[in-house]
Amino acid sequence: MDDLLREFLTETNESLDTVDNQLVRFEQDPSDAKILDNIFRLVHTIKGTCGFLGLPRLEALAHAGETLMGKFRDGMPVTAGAVSLILSSIDRIKEILAGLEATETEPEGSDEDLIEKLHEMAEGGSHAEANSEHAPVPVVAAPAVQPAITAGTLIDQVLERPLRPGEVSLDDLERAFRETAIEVEPAPAARAATPAPEAAKKEAKPRKAAAADVGDVQEADKIANQSIRVNVDTLEHLMTMVSELVLTRNQLLEISRRNEDTEFKVPLQRLSNVTAELQEGVMKTRMQPIGNAWQKLPRIVRDLSGELGKQIELEMHGADTELDRQVLDLIKDPLTHMVRNSADHGLETPAERAASGKPEQGTIRLSAYHEGGHIIICIADNGRGLNTERIKAKALQNGLVSEAELEKMTEAQIHKFIFAPGFSTAATVTSVSGRGVGMDVVRTNIDQIGGTIDIKSVAGEGSSVTIKIPLTLAIVSALIVEAGGDRFAIPQLSVVELVRARANSEHRIERIKDTAVLRLRNKLLPLMHLKKLLKIDDGSSSDPENGFIVVTQVGSQTFGIVVDGVFHTEEIVVKPMSTKLRHIDMFSGNTILGDGAVIMIIDPNGFAKALGAAGSSAQGMADENAAAHANTGEQLTSLLVFRAGSSQPKAVPLGLVTRLEEIATDKIELSNGRYMVQYREQLMPLVQMNGVNVQTSGAQPILVFADDGRSMGLVVDEIIDIVEERLHIEVAGSSEGILGSAVIKGQATEVIDVGHFLPMAFADWFSRKEMRPSVSAQSVLLVDDSAFFRNMLAPVLKAAGYRVRVAPNAQEGLTALRSGQTFDVVLTDIEMPDMNGFEFAETIRADQHLSAMPIIALSSMVSPAAIERGRQAGFHDYVAKFDRPGLIAALKEQTAGETRRAA
Amino acid sequence: MTTKTDTIEGTVVEYVTAVIGGQLFGLPISRVQDVFMPERLTRVPLSSAEIAGVLNLRGRIVTVVDMRARLGLPKNDDGKPPMAVGVDLRGESYGLLIDQIGEVLRLPDDSREENPVNLDPRMAKLAGGVHRLDGQLMVVLDVDRVLEIVPTTLAA
Q1: Domain positions in chain A
Q2: Which of A288, A486, A631, A772 gives 20 to 30 Å between its CA and that of A217?
Q3: What is the pTM of this model?
Q4: Which class is B12-146 in CATH?
Q5: What is the pLDDT of residues A876-888, one digit of tens each?
Q6: Distance, in angstroms, between B73 CA and closest chain A CA?
Q7: Which strand (E) or helix (H) includes residue A245?
């Protein structure tokens, strides 16, 4: 193919994509002259180049489009009809270009139909508008139509020269074209010139705009001259070579590490740095913002909303997230497809939306971000969600599953069927989607790049598809560790710190039965042994108290991975795993190390999953994604199981426990009839549970509870285990200090009420701080800024038979209330930062959807004035923080009232 | 049958022969990329037992399949280092671990016989027929089916 033609094709295709987008934006904001100038310039360039290359068909079409846009520039109102017309002209231009690319000649055919319409629109702007089938969109208040000739020549002259300096022949051609156009135009222009009188006034404006153009164009020109087009293959090759160079460099470094002092050290260091920079540079050439793949979406969504009669808003977040070009290409189509799906199946018609109490305009949200060394792309809509019943029926019909199997499946599992080949539940096949070649193709594409795809959906609230693309094709920095005799790479991105644990040091691995934890800066960090997790424990005795701990963070979860040894960090070239191994979610890929060995790359996300502590409450609250709010379910609670006083195990939420200590009995002192121990340079009172005796020899295990600088130790007989369970207190406790009994690990366990023991150490424990409220009858929202009180009150409420959701501040409380989850009552603390309990209550009262919500204040400042203030703010009740019976009674009263109201 | 063995009558197919657990097998030469000594094999935790590991073969990462495990045969205990036959499937490289590599045989396709009905079911699944040679039988390995490894031992 002719070089000139090839360049023209690439350039034009790019310009057209931009035009598509800009037009949609222009339609929404027709007053933005800059956008219009951009569009005009692009179309104009196409036209000019076509003339030069001798492509009459394209040229005629581009010219007609340009004429119409020229009118817009002169102030003709922008209508949806006109924009649609220009968009369809652009589509036609694309068709012709496709033909041109295939055959190197313009395909046969006539565009008279479109040209005619374009002319009509340009000439009789206002008439055409009136006849247009499309509803007018917001329109600029600038109705003046100026004779086209003036504008045309004026803009043309100014634009042409700076744009393509030196191309005299093109310019001549252009002028010749203009002149012919004038012969055609005068008659219709006269016909259409209704508001012509204003033309003179308007004249000044386009002139100014044109002048601005010159600056813009020169700017653009400068940028254009600074970039060159490089064939992708060249870049690919470059990348491969750099990868090889990196590997070779690593090999050399490996050798130099073994030979302590060689004269190679210095040059090698230099080589290493240069390689690193080279690698970074080459990587950059391959990275493109994901926005490039989204470029076409606004246009598609616009067309769809017209076609389907829905109002759709497309939100795009994180468009500048950079992605390997190759990956980008592969996800382009799946993304388009999913957006179409959301528009067609997901979102309801305005009438349906209004009927279900949603705003008429539906939203599709695209977001992209980096997480744990992956790129996450999320496509969410606030539509009707997946129809589980229909998916079930279809799955049965397609023989994918038996009825019995379906029975056992969770909703989420059922939703996954939409990824099965040929699966479409759309009752009617529309031109948009529903042909059943959808989601399975999407999944295949994602699989190809070693990614995963997941769907979440809540009936009536919307659905979201999350695509996770691993770091294939990329070079990352990784920490090389050893476990069970094998080496593994952990991506540095997710490594927070390294801790060397030793017995008798500040950091030591503690063991609660089989669960290992690390005490790190006053927090208990869950630990996982790499070799146990990977089932490669060779049984070789690893010192249970020593080891290297890689503190890893994934999302909001932090945990420690215990490894046998840590080597060094190395730049690794991530290679996708074989399809036979991709199901192992502990690994994200593999790589070849400097010494030539293949090692597996650990996927911290897989580890986080294994840890199981999915979704702490704060995390759930922070997640704005509607679909993520789905599970009203109770959260898993980490519980510390211990024995004290009786043989029956007891448990306490681990979140409440600050530390676990073993104190030598000779350190325990008796003072004033109470046991005390010197702990961290303070006297810490020890509290015994009924029937627990302080041991007389050896070490005494205690649970330390600390809040606001005060600590108390609860004396127990033996610490048994840490478990993750849904805390479900089934039998309320009768004895002091016991909330009730729950089944934990299959055993009836008494859950202790920390609140009972705290005042035993310091009588004023509760009055120092506000308690948090936020419980609702059957379902309670508890808002308190103190994690300690949240953790303490939640079990109390659960014990009283309520479902509890907690929020650490009023803002998150509001988010929860507005997320669609229903609460029967809100319990809130009064003294909170940012928004206090009174303001929170007032906000709830002011919200029309929530105004009837019972709110109970929990406070230690119970004075008549405070109660009065609470009443004014809209609290239904006011309970003292330490008055648990009072709280339960108030809750009962409020929720009973609620039930009556509902009935 | 998806291998090239299934062609028009009268064609001659070349096989690379290999011994696994005392039995002679033949792999269609069109599917064999190379034969190599597996070195520095990295085991892959949590993978299916039939995956021996991964290794670096001239810059490519090769997934190595333990053919003895695949065929349900006991582990090799003669102490001799195994060999590997390199094959490709959909752009990915695999190495099939064998005990010993043999010569290349040219065999007419029409002398290939169906799997005997009483063939061990694990072997029958992977076999694409049998050739009778002088004094011994050669089982034709269907490479595609050999590589249909289902991740059975998923991390629970």
Answers
A1: 3-226, 232-286, 291-469, 475-611, 636-761, 779-902
A2: A288
A3: 0.44
A4: mainly beta
A5: 888 776 566 677 7
A6: 21
A7: helix A232-258
